[in-house]
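tokens incoming
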């Protein structure tokens, strides 16, 4: 058995847009925090429970967005830290997972409060609450526009004999950290839209019951978004096999009939970076370098290790 030679090289699998995404997120954190402080302060001054409730609700989103910003900072500071075997490309997925759990708790809180109000209606200051919802919606629209421009790319390529690093542009939107921030903003925007509709209906049509019903609908939608984000980020954290890339590897390696893959592992190590370990049984005329060249077309793989055995 011949193993590919070990080389010393960096394992930086942050996306090309990492720093840009970090700046976008930080601005959204600042905007959310200012809105939160303004609502809480206004609530104390005016004695409005609606303002206070919305302010503390905004605080949960500010906290989650703060986790997102902190993850970008940590990943950048420790990008070359040798303690992390495959770099810090998955720190964002860890933050996304934590943020999704917070979002789930927010959804549960909204759902429970809405059900209580459905069966135990409380007085609603429709005019004041509508104004709060409109302002919140505007803040979230601005935040969403800031975050929606974030695009992730893989880093520059590094190549070594038998142990290659071929990083190419793969896809956009693979950053679960940025996605978690975006979903938090969308969730807040959704609750604002539903609240505005319900408040207007309550004020002009007398449909007071619509407010808690919209709250339940919003909670269900937000919970569904959080479950999707939890599933996506958990798959990365658990090194779930990327079946699409694995299939592509099998096709290009075994196409000539002179190589058989005996073991294959493909997993995500960054927003747009995959690592692959390929064990092959090959005819004597086929070398590890030949297999590496075949795999050059698999652009998704940024870190490749080949284990070669001659038949």
């Amino acid at each position: 058995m011949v193993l590919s030679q070990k080389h010393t090289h960096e394992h930086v699998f942050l996306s090309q847009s990492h720093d840009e995404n970090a700046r976008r997120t930080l601005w959204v954190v600042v905007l959310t925090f200012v809105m939160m402080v303004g609502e809480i302060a206004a609530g104390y001054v005016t004695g409005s429970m609606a303002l206070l409730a919305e302010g503390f609700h905004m605080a949960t989103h500010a906290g989650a967005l703060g986790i997102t910003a902190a993850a970008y900072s940590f990943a950048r500071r420790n990008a070359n830290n040798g303690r992390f075997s495959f770099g810090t490309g998955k720190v964002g997925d860890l933050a996304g997972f934590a943020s999704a759990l917070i979002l789930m708790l927010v959804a549960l809180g909204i759902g429970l409060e809405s059900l209580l109000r459905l069966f135990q209606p409380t007085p609603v200051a429709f005019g004041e609450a509508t104004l709060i919802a409109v302002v919140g919606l505007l803040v979230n629209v601005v935040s969403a526009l800031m975050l929606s421009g974030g695009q992730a790319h893989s880093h520059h390529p590094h190549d070594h004999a038998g142990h290659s690093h071929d990083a190419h542009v793969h896809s956009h939107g693979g950053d679960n950290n940025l996605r978690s921030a975006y979903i938090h903003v969308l969730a807040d925007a959704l609750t604002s839209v539903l609240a505005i509709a319900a408040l207007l209906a309550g004020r002009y049509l007398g449909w007071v019951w619509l407010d808690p019903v919209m709250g339940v609908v919003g909670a269900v939608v937000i919970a569904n978004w959080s479950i999707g984000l939890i599933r996506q980020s958990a798959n990365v954290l658990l090194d779930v096999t990327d079946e699409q890339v694995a299939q592509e590897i099998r096709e290009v390696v075994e196409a000539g009939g002179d190589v058989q893959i005996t073991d294959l592992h493909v997993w995500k190590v960054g927003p747009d970076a995959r690592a692959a370990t390929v064990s092959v049984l090959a005819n004597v005329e086929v070398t590890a370098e030949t297999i590496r060249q075949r795999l050059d077309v698999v652009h998704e793989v940024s870190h490749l290790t080949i284990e070669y055995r001659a038949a």
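note: The beta strands are 2-3, 259-270, 273-282, 301-310.
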